[in-house]
Design a protein that fits this description.
Blueprint lengths: L1 H9 L1 H19 L1 H14 L5 H5 L6 E4 L2 E4 H17 L3 H13 L10 H26 L5 H49 L25 H6 L13 H41 L12 H50 L7 H8 L5 H37 L3 H8 L6 H35 L1 H13 L4 H24 L2 H18 L7 H17 L1
Antiparallel strand pairs: 1-2
Helix pairs in contact: 5-13, 6-12, 6-13, 7-8, 7-10, 7-11, 8-10, 8-11, 10-11, 13-14, 15-16, 15-19
Length: 537
């Protein structure tokens, strides 16, 4: 503590500056979205060297975005503000998905550890570590001065506290994840006892925050397993817990041992001082020497007194050290419990809790983000309008190209919300195409189990051309009717006739097949390239 006081007294300005910078960094990190949006708006509005002034000079470069003629500078501005708009472009469906995800993984009542909690735990561990780090520094830096030993004690305490806070917190998270795995396995075993046909525990890796409703029909134990990370055997893991337990025991035992050695060293030093002082003690040459038996009795009484005092000091010291070790272990258990009660084991639970925040209902969630969307859109439109006015003013005096003037005159048809609407429509078309392909692939897999001929027909049709949702439904209905008719006909025809019919159908499909059957990943890659090509054209 003397070192800390000296540091504050002699380097008050430097310490104040460092603390202020740390507070500023924390504030920026907590409110980064607001700070970055404020800076973007300020940088665009900055006179002369601002981005709006620089973009206004380029009013001739045209690009085609979403089948509309835009200027490259307009697209650049809208793209910058679109990133902030997307962060607040949230509706009540996201709130419902987040609640559903947390509910299925049984973490709907949990939260992350607050920053104040982190500070409290770090302070407690640091104070506890300072108790034996000063003792350790005497052996770590032998022969060092008192000041250097104090500095070394602070460094050792900082290292120990950082390691222990991290280990105990991660241990709590591991134990929480293990509790979810145990809970799911108990539910699964109970279901298997009731029904021997219950499938094995295998997670569905497709489940995320956006697809949380896909496993509504699955049992609860499967919903939990789908949302947490497990090993192949779906068993609890205790790797971090084992490391933490070993670290806590080693530190507690070694710290107690070193404290005991220091206590004994202090006693030895004290005995040596007493003996040396006795050798050089001045005696009166004219004094009469005491009888020998009295000298022996006096030495025996002094030795017994010193032994009794040392025994009591030794017992008290070791009792104190054992109590401090117990307090140290108890403090680490407290840190593990905090880690067990806070944080999340679900893969996307942290994001879900962040989306829900302190909102109590979907309506409150939607109202809040609707207001934020309006603010971002209003600022972005203001910057876009100013940019378009500046480009019009420059073009009136410097541009003679009628096509450029025509595009500039139609700037009223190009707004920030129009850009975001076109962007949303393009993403919706892409998502719809992906879902359509996934549905067709799933239908092909299901048909493969019941009728290989129909499955081959589905695979060929998936490759040939994308279909609308209505056309797909009509086609599936027709296939189901044809399949039912085929089954009905198969009941009346002979085995030889059925074999001949299937051979003819396969030969006809092979003759009509124009492209090889694509896998699901190949379909996704091709669709993504097609959509990107349409957006860039």
């Amino acid at each position: 503590m003397d070192f800390v006081s000296m540091l504050f007294n002699e380097y008050r300005a430097l310490v104040s500056l460092l603390l202020s910078l740390m507070v500023l960094v924390v504030v920026i990190m907590v409110w980064w979205d607001k700070v970055s949006f404020w800076w973007l708006n300020t940088w665009y509005a900055f006179p002369l060297i601002g981005k709006e002034s620089r973009l206004a000079k380029d009013y001739e470069t045209q690009v085609k975005i979403y089948d509309k003629d835009w200027l490259n500078t307009e697209v650049a501005l809208c793209t910058d503000f679109a990133a902030h708009y997307e962060k607040v472009n949230k509706d009540e469906e996201l709130f419902s998905k987040s609640q559903d995800y947390l509910g299925k993984v049984t973490e709907n009542g949990r939260n992350n550890l607050h920053i104040l909690g982190w500070i409290l735990i770090a302070a407690l561990v640091f104070v506890e570590a300072m108790g034996f780090s000063y003792v350790l520094s005497g052996f770590t830096i032998p022969g060092a001065s008192e000041k250097l030993q104090q500095q070394g004690a602070v460094g050792i305490a900082f290292i120990i506290s950082v390691l222990l806070v991290g280990l105990t917190h991660f241990t709590g998270h591991e134990l929480h994840a293990n509790s979810l795995i145990k809970k799911a396995k108990v539910w699964w075993k109970n279901a298997k006892n009731r029904d021997k046909a219950t499938p094995e525990l295998a997670p569905n890796t497709r489940i995320n925050l956006d697809k949380t409703f896909e496993d509504d029909d699955e049992p609860q134990y499967k919903q939990v397993i789908n949302r947490i990370s497990t090993n192949a055997e779906v068993k609890p893991r205790y790797f971090i817990t084992t490391i933490t337990a070993i670290a806590i025991l080693v530190i507690a035992v070694l710290a107690t041992y070193v404290r005991g050695q220091v206590l004994e060293k202090m006693h030895i030093d004290e005995v040596n001082i007493q003996q040396n002082s006795g050798l050089y003690q001045e005696q009166d040459p004219y004094a009469e020497a005491p009888p020998a038996f009295l000298v022996e009795e006096s030495k025996s009484a002094d030795a017994k007194t010193d032994t009794d005092i040392w025994e009591r000091e030794q017992k008290g010291g070791w009792g104190t050290f054992i109590f401090l070790a117990f307090l140290f272990i108890l403090l680490q258990i407290f840190g593990i419990l905090i880690g067990f009660k806070t944080g999340f084991a679900g893969k996307h639970s942290k994001d879900a809790r962040k989306e829900i925040g302190n909102f109590k209902s979907e309506r409150e969630f939607k109202t809040h983000y609707s207001r934020l969307k309006q603010q971002v859109a209003r600022v972005a439109q203001k910057r876009l309008t100013n940019l378009q006015q500046r480009m019009n003013q420059k073009a009136e005096t410097n541009c003679q190209d009628p096509k450029v003037l025509e595009v500039l005159e139609a700037c009223g048809d190009r707004s920030f919300l129009t850009y975001m609407e076109d962007l949303g429509n393009a993403e919706s078309r892409y998502d719809q195409s992906v879902r359509l392909r996934e549905h067709q692939t799933l239908a092909s897999h299901q048909a493969m189990k019941s009728n290989p001929v129909v499955a081959t027909t589905n695979a060929v049709e998936v490759v040939e051309a994308p279909e609308a949702v209505e056309a797909m439904e009509a086609r599936l209905k027709a296939e189901l009717v044809a399949e039912a008719n085929a089954k009905k006909a198969a009941e009346t025809e002979t085995p030889e006739q059925a074999e001949q019919r299937i051979r003819q159908e396969l030969l006809a499909e092979i003759a009509q097949q124009k492209k090889p059957v694509e896998t699901e990943e190949q379909m996704r890659d091709r669709l993504r390239k097609e959509m990107l090509g349409e957006l860039s054209s």
